[in-house]
Amino acid sequence: MVPLQVLANEFVAVVKHCIEKEKGIPIERKRKYAIEKLLLCELLDKNMYAEAAEKLELWKRLRWIDCEDRRITKRVYLKETKTYRRFVVVDLGVHQILEQNH
Asked: Which of 21, 28, 60, 72 has the most other CB atoms within 10 Å of its CB?
């Protein structure tokens, strides 16, 4: 079992890194941030206390990410290309609360 504090610390650090390095797409009207699953898995695999898939599943259960049923990702419409792509969509409200209590 993964300790909640460890999971929260990693969530805050990974999301902050992606925002600072502009490695995602802000969804401002919903206060969310879309990150490619492959990139997120690479970052999560650096701390091997659990597999990236397990961490993402826990994030989903805690509702730290916005997902479709039976998926970790959500379809996001990209205005530039007028297409939909799948991303892990992070709730920035949750990120802000966890960051303040970090």
From this structure: 72
